[in-house]
Every structure is written in structure tokens, then in C-alpha cells.
Amino acid sequence: MFTYFDGKINPNPITKFIVVGILGFTVLHPIDPYFEWMTIIVLSLFFYLNGLKKDAVINIVFFSVLFFMPSFMKIEKFPIVLKMLISLLFVLRMFYMPFIAGKFLIKTSDVGSILASLDKLKVPNCVSIPIAIIFRYFPSFREERRNIKWAMKVRGIQTKNPVRYLEYVFVPLLVISSNIADDISRAAETRCISNPTRKRYTEVFINVADIVYAVTILILVIGGRMWLK
């Protein structure tokens, strides 16, 4: 079997799934804000080391905006609309760390390595295959949306009017999304997906990047929770 290694400091998908679960714990059990900062910096560092420099910078800049938002006490006298907006940003901050970890998982993992990881975890095919299809579906969907926008731009079509936007973008996307789902289903059947025999040509393994990534995040979450108390 071939070994999954892309020459970057890239943990395998099993470790990434575990980190997403660890950071999901912080949604209901928040950690100290400074430990949040350190977690975001660690996640952004892994983005940077895997060639996603723009995403690394966006992560830090966006979290800076969320970090310096006024507290609930300070927004008491704000207009109701502004209050609702800031409240939504508070909710976004709650989910931001697991969201970033999930984004790292999606952007740095291919479908083959994800399926191999799920096999290692003894996840049944009825669960692993839909997950793999989701990972394959959304990049295709995003590419088609970009193509529609480029086609509109070439034809000089403006989308400032929301009704026109629905007509020119959403309707074609609905049709295309159905076609993409059909294409993926046919490709899966062509590759004998119904055959229960496992046909994996990718092998995942634990390396130094996995240990550093998982242990660092775990220490930050535990330390941040204890420090907050």
C-alpha cells in the first residue's frame, strides 16, 4: 500500500477529527481568552506551514475583531439591531475554534486519506461513504458557483438586485447541484462502491506533526479551562 505523505507538516485526518472534537468541547465549556488566542495562533501556524498563508492571516485578523468586541454590559444601551448583530458575533466566537479546526481538516485532507482514516477507526461504510461524498461535493459546488459568477461577469450581468441574484445564481446552482450529486453517485457505482471489500490505496500513520498538533491543542484547552476557574 502507498503511504499518505505530502511533504508538509500535515497531521493525518484521524488527528484532525480528534482536534475538532476537543475544540468542540469549548463551545459549552469556554476557556480563558488568552488561551483562546494561543489556540488560534497554533491553528494558524499549521495553516501557514501547509501553504495556506492567506487563511492563516484571516484567522488571526477575524479573531482579533471577535476578541475586542464590547461586552454584554457595554452594549446594553445600543440600538436593538446593533445588539442583535453583536450577539450573533458572540455566538460566532463560541464556534470559531472548532470551525477553524474543521476548515483545516477540509482544506488539507484528500478524500482517500479521510476514507483510510475512517477505516482505521472502524467506521462502517454507511457512515464513511456519505462523509467522503460531502468532502467531494462541496469543492465541486464551489467551483461551479465561481464559474457562474465568471459567466455573469463576461456577459455584463449585475447581481445587486437580490431578485435578479436569485434568478441568475441560485436557480442554476440548484440544477447544477443535482447534476453534481448524480455524477458523484455514478462515479461511486463505477468504482464498485457496493462491493463490501475494502479497496484503499492510501495508508495513514501517526507522525511528529500529529503528536505536536493534538497534544498542544489538548494542553491549551485543559490549561485554559483550569485557568478560567
UniProtKB/TrEMBL annotation:
GO cellular component, one term: plasma membrane
Membrane topology listed for this record: Multi-pass membrane protein
Membrane-spanning ranges: 34-50, 56-73, 80-101, 204-228
Compartments, as annotated in UniProt: Membrane
Keywords: Cell membrane, Membrane, Transmembrane, Transmembrane helix
Keyword Transmembrane: yes
Descriptive protein name: Energy-coupling factor transporter transmembrane protein EcfT
Species of the source: Peptostreptococcus porci
